[in-house]
Amino acid sequence: MKSAGQGVDRGANEIATLRRAAQGGRGDFRRLLRPVAVLLVTAAFVPPAPPAIAQSYSFSSIVVEGNERIEPATIARIAGLQSGRTVSAGELNDVVQRLNASGLFRSVDVVPSGGTLIIKVVENPVISVVSFEGNALIKDEDLSKIVKSQPRRVYTPAQAEADAAAITQAYAESGRLAARVEPRVIERSNNRVDLVFEIREGAVTEIERLSFTGNRAFSDRRLRQVLQTKQAGLLRRFIQRDTFVADRIELDKQLLTDFYRSRGYIDFRVLSVSREFSPERDAFFLTFAVQEGLQYSFGNVTTISEYEGIDPAPYAEVVNIRQGQTYSPTAIDTVISRMEAIATRQGVNFLTVEPRITRNPRTQTLDVVFALTKGQRVFVERIDIEGNATTLDKVIRRQFRTVEGDPFNPREIRQAAERIRALGFFENADVRARQGTGPDQVIVDVNVEEKPTGSLSFGAAYSTSDGVGFNVALSESNFLGRGQFVSVSISTTESDQNNSITFIEPAFLDRDLKLRLSAYYRTSDNSNSYYSTRRAGFSPSIEFPLGELSTLELRYAISRDELTDVDTDSSALLQNEALRGAEITSAIGYTYRYDSRIGGIDPNRSWRVQFGQDFAGVGGDIQSVRTTGLLSYQQKIMREEVTLRAELEGGAVVATKGDTRILDRFAGRSPVRGFEPNGIGPRDLGAVNEGAVGGNFFAVARLEAEFPLGLPEEYGITGGLFADVGSVWGLDDTAGTATIDDGLHLRSSIGFSVFWDTPLGPLRFNFSKAIQKESYDKEQTFDLTVSTRF
Fold first, then answer.
1. 690 and 616 in one domain?
2. Helices (H), 58-149
3. Domain limits at 222?
4. Which residue(s) pair with 144 in the sheet?
5. Number of C-alpha atoms within 13 angstroms, CB side, residue 645?
6. In terms of Cα–Cα distance, which of 612, 561, 563, 559 is closest to 586?
7. How confident is the model at residue 180 (pLDDT cuts 50, 70, 90)?
8. pLDDT digit string (tens) for 664-686?
């Protein structure tokens, strides 16, 4: 029988013959039939081709070659093969892939040899040193925390490339989008390498222009004040927020949304943020496209109860929203907090306050119904805290008004998260609730990332009255992880010295009580006066909230005060007081404070009230009552471009036994701008130096307007106009002479201010002109104040 190969060749020849015969015409038809018949017969006897058989291998042992550090058993385990088993070629290929994926080998080869499977490997080198070159903006130790390639670990090109990408991303987040990082390998002996990341940091990619489209209610200038991102300006080398950081854009979008919605624009949306490179490709043009919508006010506000047995009347009494008031989510949250507090006092569990809002587009009002409903019976199973290596658990736990076993309140958990972040101890704080061990149980997870809370600062200060001063301060805001504040400060100017130490426990006895202990030693050579003072004292105090926006401080103070170095040409009154020597003042006192900014319900208006008294005579040498008060109001007008401020301040000190001293009276910095320290008030005109002697009373009214000057917002420069009227007056003793003028003489002044918010500190330039004054007053036409830390 012919072989299959011969049959195929014969068939091919017959087909060729058939083609030639076909070209011979019809006369050759018979000759055509003969080769066809031969072809059919041949094909019938040709056997079919055998099917492809998958190649397989069987081996009784595994041999590893080329390994130096890695044990053969480890390599065999990674390979995933067992001797004595038949494997296919595909499975051997999988072995190669697994070994390569381990990152331990530079090359892998699997060779079957009879009953033995030989695995040939070339190991990846071990990293000897990881170093960085060309970096100035980010330090080596910070880069070491970013990369995962570490000394004494196996080097893999894939990990080195991933580390280079991570470094590039770190530079991008700091505004250097042009940064380039290239990993280089330096071969060493014993299969070791040095891994070097060559870094080209590039220039900072700045925000050249920051603009908005679609905004009608607020100007670009006002909206730029809201954003964390800033335009590059005059101080671009100092301002870090004018660099382009992609992640910051999302924060800016949220800040814009919060800004508008707190002002009644409930439909506000950020449609898009376009980013465009400048022609030089070294800066970005950012444009926020916004849709403001309509501004809504509160309409009818009612309270209903859908909780059986709950009377809505007590809850309705705490609603402080007025009809016609601009809508604010904060106002809604405040009312809910008050209602939940009532439920707690009444012992009502699982009460949920549901604000149901009905929109009235025609009148642009929102009707609000606070519905008291019974929520789901869910309890807090436990609170888990992680990430706090230094901060004690109790510092975080006391930010919760909820403890294990209490009814679960999602709103309270959100507020606790905000309080944790407000501590300032953590870089990040994430608070989430998840399902507990049962359907009615919830576990609250708190994950924090701590940050440094201590600081050592060296500073400088300057004012036209005190001259140049320097200070050193050491502070720790999370002392021993207990949430306590400790500060030691030493400061000095040309005329004064102030040394102090302060300790604050924000949760005394684990309650909402702030304990403050402070001690000080001060000396001064008072400006425009001819005497010096020396004071040393200690004061403990307790502060606690009276309401949502108010606090009360109770204190005790003891001090040793002395008037020294009174000039012989000074008033006889001061010379007599100096003869009294050092005296002890022991006093108890209180201060009430109210600040509407704490609630933040109305972002355009705020009130601040402060009133305090100190009663000296609890032992010691001095018996007097000292009273001070402050009333301040601020409002933004003209699309929040202009800020108006009004302030009333006053004080009185009354001796209940004997006479007051200049150490007790109001002296020093003038309460009326436009006058030098000790430039107004009672004065002994009969003394050679006509020195100021201070007054028992003072009162002043201040008006001020702050407005933009047309300069780019990123410069941080605004202007202001102010007007003051007030006086310092009154004495107990005139030393038996009529030459002391302690009458109530009003003084007034007007002026222009330049505010400059610089990275080095806030500066204020006051240019003043006294309008109403006495002939012996001392004017001050210019005043500059700056305080900074570096």
1. yes
2. 72-79, 89-101, 140-146
3. 206-291
4. none
5. 16
6. 559
7. confident
8. 999 988 999 999 989 999 999 98
